[in-house]
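no rush on this but wanted to send it before i forget. what follows is a protein written twice so to speak, once as letters and once as C-alpha cells for the fold. mainly i need to know what kind of three dimensional shape the backbone takes. thanks a lot i owe you, the record is right below.
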Amino acid sequence: MSVISVALAILAISCAKHPTPDRTPDQDWRVTGGEPGQSRWSPLDQINRANVKSLQVAWTYHSANGSPSSMGEIQAPPIIVRGVLYATSPSLVLFALRADSGRVLWRFDPFEGRAPERHANRGVAYWESENGAERRLFYAAGRRIYSIDATTGKPAPSFGGKGWIDLATGIDRDVSRTQLVATSPGVIYKDLLIQGSRVGEGEGAAPGDVRAFDARTGELRWVFHTIPHTGEAGAETWAPEAWKAAGGANSWSGMTVDVARGIVFVPLGSASPDFYGGERLGQNLYANSLVALDANTGKRLWHFQTVHHDVWDRDLPAVPNLLTVTHDGRRIDAVSQITKSGFVFLFDRVTGQPLFPIEERRVPSSDVAGEETWPTQPIPTKPAPFARQRMTEADITDLSPAAHDSALARFRRMKHDELFTPPSREGTVILPGFDGGGEWGGAAVDRATGVIYVNGSDVPWIAALKERAAATASSAQTGEALYAASCSSCHRADRGGDGGRVPSLIGVTQRRSTPEIKQVIERGRNFMPAFANLSEAQKNAIIAYLDGRNVSVAAVAPARSDDASPSAGVTPSRFQFLGYERWRDAAGYPAIKPPWGSLSAIDLNTGEYRWRIPLGERPELKARGIPTTGSEQYGGPIVTAGGLVFIGATMDGKFRAFDKDTGALLWEYQLPLPAYASPSTYRVNGKQYVVISSAGAKLGSQAGDSYIAFALP
C-alpha cells in the first residue's frame, strides 16, 4: 500500500470517529403551528420510523425558575427562530433559550412592579423586518400586548411608546371592568400584528373585535367588528343596535394566514351569554363562524357559520389548517376547520365554497321560556365526525353495576335526543362535552398527502339551566347567599370545584390577595365569566365568605353613598347556567363506555378515514384487564416527513410517536406530568429536536413547569 493510501485510510478512520460538523441548514418552527398556514407539519426526517425508538432527553428547562408554578398552566408550543427557543412560564414570564442546550439567554417578567393577572398562554408571535435588523416577539399578559426585542428580552419602546399597548385599543365601548385577555398569540402579516382576544362568556362581556396593529409602532391599522354595527353586513341577524351591548364572538383560539394571497382566516367563538340566548335572538353572525378577511384592510371576503344562535358553547376551538387537496381531479388550495362537535369543515380558501356538501338539518327546539333556538344547523356530509355525538342507554358505563345503574337512572331523567338538543331545566347530555371533540391543540395536516391528524375527547357533560330568583334588597344579602347564587353552580356548594376546569376555592384567601380575587370576580379568568353586575359591597361579602366569615352586604359596604355595580345597566339573563359539569361516575370515570379519547387520520382528498385509534389510557383500569380506554385530552399533534405523528395531550402523561400511515405506536415516553400543549420540532446544528411542555395542572393533575427536548443520541 502506498504512503498516500495509508494516509487516506488513517484520515477516513479519524473522520469516522470525529465527524465534521453537519452543514445542514437550521430548520425553524417560527409559528406555534410551524408556519403561517398552521399545518403543524415539518419537512424534517432525521427522526423517523426506523430510529424514533432511540429518542432520549436532550435537555430539560424548569420555566418557573424556582418560583411557585401552581399559578397557571403551560399550553404553549414553543417557537424556534435562528437557533433560539421562545416560550412562556406558568406565570407568563417570557424567556429565550439556546434551542440545542436549553441554556437561558434572557427572561422577561411582564408583571414586574405591578399586580399579576393570571391566564393561560398558548405561545408568542415572531416578526422581523425585511432586512432582519429588527426582530420582535409579541404576546399578551393581562390587558397589555407586549413587543419584546428578540435579542435582548427588553420591551421595544417604539411600540406604543413604552413597549406595550392596551389590549382594549380599538374597541369602541368601555370594557375596563370586563374580562379581556389574549390567550393565543396574534398572527403576523407583513408589518401587521393581527390580534384576537379572550372575553367573558356571561352578560356584559366585551365584543370580540379583531384588530390589526402596526408591528413597529402599535398604531391601530384596522378593526373587524365580529358583532356587526348598524348598517354592516350581518347586523340583521341580531336585534337592532345589539352591537352596543352584546359580547363574545371572539377569536380566542388563534388565526391562520395565507401569506401569498393576503388572507387571514379567523375562527370565532360564541355570543354571550353562552347557554341562554333569550336576550340575543337571531342567527348571531359572526359568532361561531370561520371568517376570511383581507389581511391588509380587515375587509370580510367570505364567512361560514358552523352553529346558528349557539347555546352549546360551540366556539371554534382551534386555528384553521391550510392544505392542498385533490377533488374531482383538480388541485384545490383549501382551509380546514375542526370543531368541538367533532366535525371537520373543508372549504376552498379563496371562495369559501364547501368542498364536501353541507346540509342544513332540522334540530330540536328549546322549551325554555323566552329562548328561540335556530330551527336548523349545518352538518357536513364528509368526513364522518371524529367524536361521538349522541349517547343512548347502550352507551352507559359498565365499569361496575353500581356505576351503570346510577348513570342510567340519571340519563333517563335528562334530555339526550341528538347533537343539537338545547340546554334544559332537567339537564341535557352534551356529547362531545363543552371542551370537545376538538380543542385548542388543533389538528395537523400532512402537506404531502392531504391527510389531517386530529385528536378528540369523547366524554359527556351536562347543560342545565334554572330561572333566576328575584333579587332581595342588596343590603340584606349575605356572602353565603351571593356565593350560592353566583358561584356554587360551578365551584359547588362546598367550594371544592370539579378537579378539572373549575378550581377549588377552599383556602383561596390564603393563596390569593383580596385585590387578586376581586379582579377575577370583576374580569373573569379562563372559563369563569366576569360578574359585572355585582356591586363592590357584594364582592366584598363573597370574599369574606370565602375567608370563613358570613357577613351581610351592608356590613362590608364601601364608605360611599353610591353602591352601584361597576358595569351599571348589565342585566342578568332570565335563566342561569348551572355550571360546567363533566358527567362522571362515583369513581371519577366518564359515565359513558370507552373510548374516552381518540386520534384519527382522515384523508381530506376523499373524506375517508385512514385509521382511528384510542389515545391515552388509565393505568389502573389497564391493570384490571380493561383494554385501552383513551382519555380526555388537551393539546394536539404534529406530523413530520419522517413518517411520524407526535402527540402528548393525554391524562396519563405519556409523549407518543405513531406511524402516520398506520397509526401504529412506535415510541412513548413517560413525562413527569401530562403535556397539555402541542409539541414543536426543529433542527439546530444538524440535529433534529422535538420539544414539549410537561406541566399538568388540568384534569386533577399536579402543576409543574418543565419544557423537555428530545433528540437522537
Q: What stands out?
A: The helical segments are 3-17, 401-413, 479-486, 488-491, 508-511, 514-523, 536-546, 619-622.
